[in-house]
Specification:
mainly alpha; 201 residues; Four Helix Bundle (Hemerythrin (Met), subunit A)
Length: 201
């Protein structure tokens, strides 16, 4: 069970907006690029400000908007017959790049382990790569948890919010990052395992 399992209900809420955007000629790739640009700007803001608490307030907002945009680009592609090979590439690369530029700047926040942050980002990339590799062996794109894209967004969004509202950065945040590392390893194993199980191996 992951936050990703709530996606259908979230999509239903966004469907009227998606319909409006489709009528206005908005393409899925436009939405994907907007999410990527937002993530890049938010990540750069944290990096340039050296992790200033006020800059962290933007992270939960950007993560929520990005989640909505990711849902919308998928609905536009599927429900309005706008799927393209370029869109598939942008969608996968956009998610990985957005995660990287949003989460890597946490390494400059005083008291946050740069090593743990980097390892979390690296394992996040590997977990998404594992999900994509499943398609290459004949399985479906795997989104198994327990630390999928939505779960990482929730975790980093909550961390940013706590720090921004004055919770002192201490050993607790590095413990959280270490737990995320363990959960990411489990995610990678689960995605590989269920992909193989799906094709009967």
């Amino acid at each position: 069970m992951t936050i990703y399992d709530l996606k259908p209900a979230f999509q239903n809420i966004l469907r009227p907006l998606c319909m409006f955007m489709a009528k206005k000629g908005v393409r899925p790739n436009h939405v994907t690029l907007l999410a990527l640009i937002m993530s890049f700007l938010a990540g750069m803001l944290i990096w340039i400000s050296c992790g200033a608490t006020w800059s962290l307030l933007f992270i939960p907002i950007v993560l929520f908007v990005r989640m909505a945009l990711n849902a919308i680009d998928g609905m536009l592609a599927r429900e309005y017959d706008m799927k393209t090979p370029l869109g598939a590439i942008l969608n996968e690369l956009g998610d990985v790049i957005s995660d990287t530029v949003l989460y890597l700047p946490f390494a400059v926040i005083p008291g946050v382990s740069a090593y743990l942050t980097v390892f979390v980002v690296i394992l996040s990339i590997i977990s998404e790569m594992t999900g994509v590799i499943a398609v290459q062996i004949g399985a479906s794109r795997r989104y198994d948890g327990p630390m999928g894209k939505s779960d990482r967004a929730f975790a980093f969004g909550l961390l940013a919010l706590l720090i921004a509202f004055g919770v002192p950065v201490g050993a607790w945040i590095n413990i959280v990052l270490f737990i995320m590392l363990i959960l990411l390893i489990l995610t990678i194993l689960n995605r590989a395992r269920y992909a193989l199980k799906e094709i009967g191996v």
